[in-house]
Amino acid sequence: MSEPVTVRILDREYTIGVGDEERAGLAVAARLLDARMRELRGGNKLVPPDRLAVLTALNFAHELQQAKGTAAATADDSGTLALLAEANRKLDALLA
To answer: Per mean pLDDT, which range of 20-24, 68-72, 91-95 is the poorest?
Structure first.
């Protein structure tokens, strides 16, 4: 069941409807977003919040893209190592 939850980001409150199972995750995400936006804003309180939100979203998207690339490369490496190990087992069996 969807219940309204209020989160606070850059001293503004936002009410969002979420299920019970998503409530904790939303709170963590809101704190992370608030911290990142404050970090990007730094001491410059004149940066418009919408611009700050877009820059923060762009940073998160870039980090996600890098993480996916790293995960894909790791999966590719694991697959290659598994193929090599299987080839070595077959060669060992043939030579034995």
So the answer is: 91-95
The secondary structure of residue 18, as a DSSP letter, is E
CATH number at residue 48: 3.30.160.880
Calculate the CA dihedral of residues 33, 39, 45, 47 and round it to 10 degrees.
-70
Cα 69 to Cα 91: distance, rounded to the nearest angstrom: 33
Domain range enclosing 26: 2-95
pLDDT at 75: 66
Span 13-60, pLDDT tens digits: 999 999 999 999 999 999 999 999 999 999 888 999 999 999 999 999
Total count of domains within the chain: 1
Find how far residue 79's CA is from the centre of its chain: 24
The first and second tokens of residue 69, run together, are 């690339």
* Residue 24: both structure tokens together: 């904790």
